[in-house]
Amino acid sequence: MKLFRQLLFAFGSAWQNFWRNLAVSVAAVVSIALILILAGTSLLLGHALGQVLDSYRHRVSVLTISVADKTPLASVYDFEGQLQARPEVVSVHFVTKEEELKSFASDPRNQQLIEQIEGNPLPAKIEVKVARLDDVKRIDALARQWRGVDRTDPTDYKGDFITNMLRLSTWLTIAGLGMLAVLTVASVVIVMNTIRTAVYHRRQEIELMKLVGATEWFVRGPFVVEGVMTGVIAASLALGLLLAAYRPFVERFRAELFFLPLSYDPRFVHVLAQDLLVAGAALGALGSYVGVRRFVRL
Amino acid sequence: MLIAPEFNSRPVISFQHVWKTYPNGTDALRDICLTVPEGDFLFLVGASGAGKSSLVRLLIREEKPTRGRLFVHGQELRSLRRRRLPQFRRQIGLVFQDFKLLPRMTVHENVAFALQALGESRRVIAHQAGAALETVGLAGMERSYPNELSGGEQQRVAIARALVHRPRLFIADEPTGNLDPATAWEIMQIFLRINAAGVTVVMATHNREIVDVMRRRVVAIERGQIIRDDRYGTYHEALPAAAVRLR
């Protein structure tokens, strides 16, 4: 019961102090909101880039091996079995010459061409889907050594493209992590100092609490609750602004760079809301906890 | 020579060869030996910087002794763990020269605050805060703010706050320092009533008139040492009767 009353006191006191020190509260909300807007923007950009990269990654993670016309079916099945046995291979799909022609003919852009060709010049194909882009090169080398491969156009391996994409992906991950680290440190420092200012204004109250026998957590509780409250309000503000800008940004981007596979992702909105609210609450709580520590210590 | 008074009841405070040395090497207190029995009323006198405030800070465990042993309510304060400190301080009522009231809180809130910190229920808080304010003669002023009160009234609120959790030991650091003589006497009457109820009172003061008129136990400190401990003392050492006649 005492614990419940102390919790109630912490919430009541936090709410009261938030409004009583409105100027400091607004400063804290604005600083946290700015940081979260930056973090949210980087998350959104990261997600958009991820969408584009994923789409390309999907395309290049499937290696198509052309099969020479006179290759016996037994040899194809044998090679297919070899590929399937490899751990880096997700799936193997054999496409016969007839299936390939059917697929080619079904594309309206090829209608004129299909009328001009005689017989079936298209080779049979083995489509190999690999788990990681780095493995495509190894499968390509293996395919080129296979006797049944079409020597004129063995595979559709795009080595440079994959290498560049892997490099870009690595750099983007490093840059994202670096930015996240900088933002986290900056935000904790800003929040800590803002809350320390709020605490400094109330040092007499804290001093008194300690002298009348309040425990450290009783003194700290209202500040931490106030920090969480400030963080959640800031996160809601940041989220509102980011969501208002997200759809227009995607539409504008698609209008300008139509060839990039970027789209508005409503599922990501939930992820973003969850991340920002948790980050806001955590930042507020951590900033308050650290900011108040020096004054609260008995 | 220092002669400790005789006591019949158990000690509330016991300094045993206590030293307080600050990091710059200054000895604020030197070899303090002092016993305060339950129900005593003790004046702590001495010039500014003599060591009174250092002694008070040790008593409320704002600071630890550098050497020696200090017992309050049977607890040795040098070895008292940090997590036990709140419990320890709840047994002490504290009053300061500058009242230390929270300006944004009403009189009632200032007094109730001490009980809220202990997690008491609203009913207990309302009852005890009301009783404490009645004891100091401020019933009916619960809704006022500190800046609407006189100095004497503010000190009464501070006393009510110190009283509200029913401490067994009352420590006052210059409680009349900011008050006019008439108001200071009113405050002293409250302290006497508190002491009459069995609460031990330790008061650091510069107020010579009050000490001389009340004739309670006086402990004088000079340069960090106790130089006098009189059962019914005065602010300055009483001159022998012959010396007074010669004057």
Which helices and strands, and how do they pair?
The complex is a heterodimer of chains A (about 300) and B (about 250).
Chain A: H1 2-20, H2 22-60, E1 62-67, H3 73-84, E2 89-95, H4 97-106, H5 111-116, E3 124-130, H6 136-145, H7 159-201, H8 203-211, H9 216-256, H10 266-296
Helix pairs in contact in A: 1-9, 2-7, 2-9, 2-10, 7-10, 9-10
Chain B: E1 11-21, E2 27-37, E3 41-45, H1 52-59, E4 67-72, E5 75-76, H2 85-89, E6 92-96, H3 107-116, H4 122-135, H5 151-163, E7 169-173, H6 181-196, E8 200-204, H7 208-214, E9 217-222, E10 225-230, H8 241-246
Parallel strand pairs in B: 3-8, 3-9, 6-7, 7-8
Antiparallel strand pairs in B: 1-2, 1-4, 4-5, 9-10
Helix pairs in contact in B: 3-4, 3-5, 4-5, 5-6
Walk me through what this model shows.
The complex is a heterodimer of chains A (298) and B (247). Helices cover 74% and strands 7% of the residues of chain A. With 298 residues, chain A is mostly helical. Chain A has a 3-stranded antiparallel β-sheet. The mean pLDDT of chain A is 84. By secondary structure, chain B is of the alpha/beta class. Chain B has a domain at 103-161. In chain B, helix 3 (107-116) packs across helix 4 and helix 5 runs parallel beside helix 6 (181-196). Mean pLDDT of chain B is 88; it is low at 1-7 and 241-247.
Task: Give a short overview.
Chain A is 74% helix and 7% strand. With 298 residues, chain A is mainly alpha-helical. In chain A, helix 2 packs antiparallel against helix 7 (159-201) and helix 9 (216-256) packs antiparallel against helix 10.
Seen as an oligomer or otherwise, the chain set is heterodimer
Main sheet summary of chain A: 3 strands, antiparallel
Estimate percent helicity of chain B: 25-40%
Low-confidence stretches of chain B: 1-7, 241-247
What is the molecular shape of chain B?
A: globular
**Count of individual domains of chain A:** 2
Radius of gyration of chain A: 30 Å
N to C succession of SSEs of chain A: HHEHEHHEHHHHH
Which pair of chains has the greatest number of interface residues, and how are they split between the two chains? A-B, 21 and 23 residues
Strand percent estimate of chain B? 25-35%
First-last Cα distance of chain B: 26 Å
What sequence of helices (H) and strands (E) makes up the elements of chain B?
Answer: EEEHEEHEHHHEHEHEEH
Across the major sheet of chain B, the strand order is: 6-7-8-3-9-10
- Strand element count of chain B: 10
Q: What is the number of strand segments of chain A? A: 3
